[in-house]
Design a protein that fits this description.
Chain A is mainly alpha-helical. The first copy, chain A, is built from 8 helices and 3 strands; from the N terminus they run αβααβαβαααα. Chain B binds a DNA duplex (28 and 28 nucleotides) through helix 2 and helix 3.
Chain lengths: ~200, ~200
DNA sequence: TTCGTCATGTAATGGGTTACATGATTAC
DNA sequence: GTAATCATGTAACCCATTACATGACGAA
């Protein structure tokens, strides 16, 4: 047993924070502090990042040429504070769009799906559908795993563990229903407004 | 803004894995491989640990004198494989019971609440109640945060982000309801079988 | 004899937080 | 003038994963 057999996809983790930062900067230039606020507000319950990861991340992205410091914004000392305003470069834009359209397994993971969805408005219906369906499969797998485990061990579990597991299962089932609604609505979108039919 | 103001509780993190291992060994002696299976089975959807964290953890706990290698089990080569069977020491038992009964904020965190609940059968009703109520407050706080954020930004959000946030809110609300049920049932337990009244 | 599973471990790496250090600006 | 918030950053640490290395046992 290879410990976790999540296929041998060599994808380099596709850092969630990178993606999120790129996505926000794709909407408008921002400085670090504001970026973090937006980030934690819009990701809400899903995730919260600290400066200790944000600032190094910005530096890294800058090093990779995906973002630049917007000198014009920094220079105009209208409100004199020393802000470092970042903008997406052309490569940054390209990179982000690529990541967004990719819709591979990395966008289905628990921690990145929400972030991807946050930027759904910037994709096309087909990609959204692909991601939503991928996510649903993932969650359905999880559900099946839980169900199997539960029916296997139900008798041996004390009432608390049982309730815990059942609640977990319910949550997952709820997510599946939610995803299905989204998928249906997305599908009707597609058929009423066909992309190239 | 001190970044995250989770009070200045100096509690040394109360490592979840440690607690879980202690708890499982409190039920019966086990060797590493089996421990991991039990762990990932009973924590189910909540968490999954790898050997890379489990074995060092066992070593550490052993160093702290909380667990020992059960030589009798290792010596009896009935099924000759070289297993290293661990047992709780007296201090280990004490430590675990203390942690279990403590029911402080650390048992309300997302990642440790489930683990604590897994071992509820080994506590008293009062402690269970305390932990459940603590957890509920925590989740209610989260709910309020989400509601506030949502009502503040509802207009500015695109439909996808909105749906995402709303689903997050629903999940949290669902957990609150669930916890309330558990609390009520635990309360009636207490009143029908008073501990010292 | 080879494959799957049982079984134990280590080294490198990763992605993040905490706590700290610093200072400007705004509101009271 | 002082408290809160805005703003940027760094260094030390933490907890865990991944990938690797090793080997015994049972079944086909």
């Amino acid at each position: 047993m290879r410990q976790t057999d999540r296929s041998s996809a060599a994808a380099p983790a596709a850092r969630v924070l990178d993606f999120a930062v790129l996505g926000l900067l794709h909407e408008s230039p921002l400085h670090g502090y504001e970026l973090r606020k937006q980030l934690n507000a819009s990701l809400g319950s899903l995730r919260a990042f600290s400066y200790g990861s944000l600032y190094p991340c910005l530096r890294r992205l800058q090093g990779e040429g995906l973002i630049t410091v917007d000198d014009s914004a920094a220079a105009s000392k209208l409100s004199g504070r020393s802000k470092v305003v970042y903008t997406l470069t052309a490569e940054g834009k390209e990179h982000f769009t690529a990541l967004l359209g990719e819709g591979g397994p990395s966008s289905w993971e628990d921690d990145s799906f929400g972030v991807h969805m946050r930027f759904f408005a910037q994709t096309d219906a087909a990609t959204r559908l692909r991601i939503l369906e991928g996510r649903r499969s993932r969650v359905e797998e999880k559900r099946e795993g839980l169900r199997a485990g539960l029916s296997r061990t139900r008798e041996r579990l004390d009432s608390y563990t049982l309730k815990l597991q059942e609640h977990g299962l319910e949550s997952v089932e709820h997510e599946v229903r939610w995803l299905t609604e989204l998928i249906d609505s997305e599908r009707s979108h597609l058929t009423t407004t066909p992309p190239k039919d």
